[in-house]
Specification:
Helices cover about 0% and strands about 0% of the residues. With about 70 residues, it is low in regular secondary structure. It has one domain.
Length: about 70
């Protein structure tokens, strides 16, 4: 998500099922636009009933290149 006006999504959004058990999530995406001032946004947590949410070892890692499809 852009960290400035117009606050646009850069190409990734996901709904996940949170439980009382620790879980590991891994996502891969290619942004549809680039921005030098972006942020990760964990949103809509307030829509869940009660409790606290804990995140650990959140990281972003560069991926490979997406080339042309064969043919």
């Amino acid at each position: 998500m852009m960290a400035h006006d117009p606050w646009s999504n850069l190409g990734f959004s996901a709904d996940i099922n949170l439980t009382t058990t620790w879980q590991v999530f891994a996502f891969t995406f290619a942004p549809h636009t680039s921005d030098t001032n972006a942020r990760i946004n964990f949103s809509n947590m307030g829509l869940a009933a009660g409790g606290s949410f804990y995140f650990t070892d959140v990281s972003l890692k560069p991926g490979g290149l997406i080339g042309l499809k064969p043919g």
